[in-house]
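Quick note —
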Amino acid sequence: GTYIGTVCAQSEFGRTVALTSATWLGGDPDPFVVSSGSRVAADPESSGNSRDYTRVADYSIETLADATVRFALSDGSTQTGTLAQVPVGVTVQVQQCVSTGGGERCSTLVSLPANGPAATRVTFTGSCVPAGGDPGAEFTVTGRPFGDAQFTPQGTDQVRVSWSSTPGHIAFSHAAFTGGMSDDPGPPPGPGG
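Predicted structure written out below.
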């Protein structure tokens, strides 16, 4: 368990109360109190034909002094210390661990929910969109509903992906894909059609 110490002091100048940070006494540490879930950063990272919104901007949890924070991801991976990235489609649990003379003791895992839009990947298939064609037809979106993305041609060689915002949460920044548009309308229709 844990405790928070209280120290009271009095002098001719008055009284004061000081509180210590939570300190581990023994047994398994208490589970985390999650103040706010993880929020994905607004700016995407480029990876070939994909733009990933997976970097974690912030989260808020209350920890014990000298505890190690461990994040357990549903894909089987773990991150220790800070949560840097959440892959698309992965959920996160968090626990705190303290060192003992013969190893460590850990709290139970608690869920660290997404605070805003989930981690997202948008991928360009690599096919050129003919002039006047639907640029969204050449993209896939994973992690968020496809309808949250708007695909807009930018000149003849680029498609810009913009995102609808979620009230009370940061909006994703746009992502650009070069080579997605063609000024060639494609072959003429064949005979009879």
